[in-house]
Specification:
Four copies of one chain form a homotetramer. Helices cover about 75% and strands about 0% of the residues of chain A. Chain A has helices at about 10-35, 40-50, 55-60, 65-85, 90-110, 110-125, 135-155, 165-175, 175-185, 190-205. Chain A is elongated and about 60 Å long. The structure holds a DNA duplex (21 and 21 nucleotides).
DNA sequence: AATGAATGAGAATTCATTCAT
DNA sequence: AATGAATGAATTCTCATTCAT
């Protein structure tokens, strides 16, 4: 509305476009989470957005770009939730605990986002040219976690272990919650979070209490 | 003479049929592992077997049966490697250790098999009629592991923890090795196995040594 | 504005869609009449419409729906021609006469329509899942005719006979004209109609004049 | 067995071949009658004969020849039943009556044969080059009947009518019994035969009694 | 005389994408 | 900015036919 005044404005198109893109990304997330990657056709996503198929092609270069935006969106949202929680802690154990807990909370709150990510991770190779590389999407998360673990070792809080193996293990423990939750919706998340936190607290700390 | 006996006879498969089926299953495994579930079309699989598309239809009732055979084949091979190793142990910790180690060895030796399984697990749900149910293929593995862990707790070897959460965590730590290995082929498997075994030894045992 | 209303709206078909559907139904009728049910593939029908195969899928849910539309279309056209002619009569003999004559006229004018119907009737049962049930398409016509005959008996115009057997006989005498006409295009339809009308007039009436 | 003695005997092969061909024709008839023309695949027919697909190709030049044999076989059997019955009569009305009754009896006794014929008549155009021409199979029957009717007119027993139209009408009244019987197995055949005989007796005879 | 194995063409259907309006 | 229409490639599956044994 306000934008009609600024005739020829470049901003206004950008606003509508931004909104549409966000909407389409949301619909894509839901479709992928609920139907799986390969059943989340453009037609299905468009239907969920109550919009014609052409709109997606109009706003995104192709399915590929749409999927990339899904990945980016989820990553950003997760970071926004988790990072403050982690940086609020000062001990390595505390940070690891915050990492696991905030991540599980994010999953609980955005189950479809994570489900979509996992479906994409495995299914996206569908396009001959991988639209989203596993490495690109997941490795940074592992790297960041590994760095956190290493600093815990350097501070003398954590025992010696391969930070990479441990980081991968923790990430997978977390990521696999989403499908589990999907199959068994009344899963006790609090318990699950506590179990994981305890397990990896024990598995990483230097000396038993 | 020849035809009177046949009726009702469940004559077992001919030699050549058995060989072809095995070959096609192998080609399917490779195709799925390398291209992803949905790019592993019958045409692609046939091409890898240097055989016409129709051959697959001739030997398997449909894509569904082929995929089922892939799952069965992998499961059987893995069991054949792992079970003897596990049952050779007598302590719960020993069994867990054998479980992890033999599983990683199997993965190292049959990377494509595991990659195929994971792709099927995610990709197959994607069909309107899931050709292979995730639960059917994976949950039993988790269940078996959980049972093993519970017996460890009952024997007093393991601390108290949710056996389900721990079993899921361990299985995912293992399963996620395949894609990792695929992305990073010169991964030190021995080290990885040792790290995982140590981590879950520490994470499960009752009292620190 | 545009999208708020749409939801739930059963907006009727667009002009162009209606035209395409009609065109495709016509092409299907011709293809089925000329090539037989099972040679009338979607590809063939599309080719006749000078349109890509996908267009049929775009406008019809599947072959099934297309065939259903063929049946509906033919039935409606035939009814539109015959019913006024029949209801214009007041004696049972007059109605039967009008029934036979108007039906033959319709067949003469729409030979392919009838040929298509017959091919569908026999060919469609042939699909594992019959796309169009013989009974549904043909029995009503027999039923309606039998009812007309019965009312003629009740009025005392017609002799006693099994209205079902007679209705079946008349319908088949009529329906079989189409293939006959197809094989022998210069058939004298006027004569044929007169012969049939006379035959069944004699065969049904109570007392000779 | 006995044939092994007559080494190189041409006769013995002929005997087995004749038997096989007859068996395959029977199986084809049943398959076509029960499943419809296009579902009666060579595989299905072979299965019913408990024989491999190749056998059919071995004994018949192709599906086309097999279908031709089906038509020939049915025609011969029907003639064998009907002709003696017809020629036993001496009045035209008696012959027509015998024609209708013996034909219905044949249908009752060999329902599948007639069903197969009808399915073939409509469905066989499936092959681009019609494997069986409607004309070839059905017109002779109509011609023969028309001739019979004409002789009735010449003798002064029958009224004037187009013998062709009447013959077509009668043949179709008869042929349509098979599908009817198939849809409604407990149909009263005696009644049906009596109705048809009466109807066409009335419709053809010169003067009302 | 018969079989099992393999072929390749053709079927329906699905889908991302393009384009005129 | 959005839509409906159309395309063409790809997928699974079926089938008559061929061929070595």
């Amino acid at each position: 509305m306000e934008s009609e005044i600024i005739s020829g404005g470049q901003e206004s198109r950008s606003f509508i476009e931004t909104a549409r893109r966000a909407q389409l990304v949301e619909c894509a997330i839901d479709a992928i989470a609920e139907l799986g990657y390969s059943n989340a056709s453009m037609a299905e996503i468009a239907k969920r957005a109550r919009v014609s198929k052409g709109v997606i092609s109009y706003h995104f270069a192709g399915k590929r770009e749409l999927i990339e935006q899904v990945v980016n969106t989820v990553m950003e949202k997760a970071s926004a939730v988790m990072l403050p929680r982690i940086y609020a802690e000062h001990s390595a154990a505390g940070m690891l605990h915050a990492y696991i807990e905030s991540n599980l909370e994010f999953i609980a709150a955005h189950r479809n986002h994570i489900l979509a990510m996992m479906n994409i991770a495995v299914g996206a190779r569908v396009d001959r040219k991988p639209s989203v590389d596993l490495e690109l999407a997941f490795e940074p998360a592992v790297m960041a976690l590994a760095t956190m673990l290493r600093s815990g070792q350097e501070r003398g809080e954590f025992r010696e272990f391969s930070t990479t193996v441990m980081a991968v293990t923790i990430r997978n423990a977390i990521d696999s919650l989403a499908p589990l939750l999907s199959a068994n919706p009344k899963l006790d998340l609090k318990l699950y979070a506590k179990e994981l936190a305890t397990t990896f607290d024990i598995a990483t700390r230097k000396s038993p209490v």
